[in-house]
Specification:
By secondary structure, this protein is α/β, with parallel strands linked by helices. Helix content is 25%, strand content 27%. The structure holds NADP nicotinamide-adenine-dinucleotide phosphate.
Length: 333
């Protein structure tokens, strides 16, 4: 027996600005036959994440480039349709790395059973998934803020940044967000409880940040790199920490110059640490358990931007680079 699958294939490596024509949507046949230990999953939500731009580009990155002619790799949340793994049953909700396709087959141990505490399925791709874990481990294991310190977060209205800021606030820090536009800045203050926000599109980020963080910056959670990082460096306090989590402003432009102001790293004795969440798998269970509980209890707020339809996944990824999404971006299929 086989079923008709729908897949989003990467067909062209993007150069410069990512466009949807790097992808094509095809219908293929998938044999439903399962080997012992395997499960068949019907995906319901596809995760759209900035690192997929790096995978598609195929340049120097922390993991294997996405192969051309194959479904775009990525996280997905769905439902078990058939199982030859005794630990998983038909109807179980799972998160897997089956990528951008309607159906997929993987080994049961490659899927994480979710939904037991009742969060909606897309939340397991965001607050209670990889971006939430990135926020948790980046904040507590790498940034290690102390109560009373000032924490600045860039891409503050996004999937990772929105959680970082709330975790640091819950930890007793004064949190300042950096985001693009007045609506996102209002959101992080009024909805997520940050102390202040600076709009990097308003024209004077260094001046606005100085006003928002008058006592200087103790921890900077960097998702953006480039000009935003340059604006932060002179404001760092002695012994500040930088969590180097991402540099989305240059994913489309790998030839961008290294930000200036590196002399501050020495004079302020800054600890700067690059961090990849997948290197710390042993820490995921603690992070996922707490994030899910806090989200269920309403202590952590999370937003989602949902794009409808598998055929719209290629157009969804560029939205991350245009600042069009709020919170976690997912495709419902
Ligand atoms: N190291 C790791 O293990 C790891 C894991 C997950 C994510 N990350 C990184 O964390 C960052 C955030 O990921 P996410 O999933 O939470 O994405 P996201 O914040 O939900 O979406 C990306 C946001 O980046 C902002 N942005 C885009 N281009 C920008 C530019 N040129 N200058 C300033 N801001 C820009 C946009 O917000 P505005 O509207 O505010 O511009 C956009 O909404 C990314 O750099 C990602 O690669 C790293």
């Amino acid at each position: 027996m086989s079923l008709q699958n729908r897949q989003v294939l990467l067909v062209r490596r993007p150069e410069g600005t990512l466009r949807k024509d790097s992808f094509t949507v095809v219908t293929t046949e998938l044999s439903e036959e399962l080997a012992p230990g395997e499960i068949l999953v019907r995906n319901r939500f596809l995760s759209v994440d900035p690192y997929q731009r790096l995978l598609a580009g195929g340049g120097d990155t922390f993991t294997q480039p996405a192969p051309l002619g194959a479904p775009m790799p990525g996280w997905a949340a769905g439902e078990v349709m058939a199982s030859r793994d005794p630990k998983l049953s038909v109807g179980d909700k799972v998160v897997s790395y089956l990528g951008w396709q309607l159906f997929g087959i993987c080994r049961g141990e490659q899927a994480r059973k979710v939904g037991l505490r009742g969060l909606p399925l897309p939340a397991y791709l965001g607050v209670a998934g990889m971006p939430g874990v990135t926020a948790y481990l980046g904040t507590f294991d790498i940034g290690r803020p102390k109560a009373g310190e000032t924490v600045v977060v860039s891409a503050a209205a996004g999937a990772v940044g929105g959680i970082v800021g709330q975790l640091a606030r819950m930890h007793g820090c004064r949190v300042v967000g950096i985001a693009g536009g007045p609506a996102k800045c209002r959101h992080v203050v009024e909805d997520l409880g940050f102390a202040a926000a600076a709009d990097y599109k308003a024209g004077d980020l260094p001046g606005d940040l100085r006003k928002s963080a008058p006592e200087g910056i103790d921890v900077y959670f960097d998702s953006v790199g480039g000009a935003v990082l340059e604006a932060v460096l002179p404001l760092l306090n002695p012994f500040a920490r930088i969590v180097l989590c991402g540099h989305i402003s240059t994913y489309d432009r790998p030839e961008s110059p290294i930000p200036s102001g590196w002399e501050f790293l020495l004079s302020r004795r800054v600890r700067l640490e690059g961090f990849i969440v997948g290197d710390r798998l042993d820490r995921w269970p603690e992070a996922l358990g707490r994030l899910e509980r806090w989200a269920v209890e309403g202590k952590l707020r999370y937003e989602e931007t949902i794009v409808e339809g598998l055929e719209n996944a290629p157009g969804a990824l560029p939205q991350l680079f245009q600042g069009k999404s709020l919170g976690k971006l997912v495709v419902a299929i």
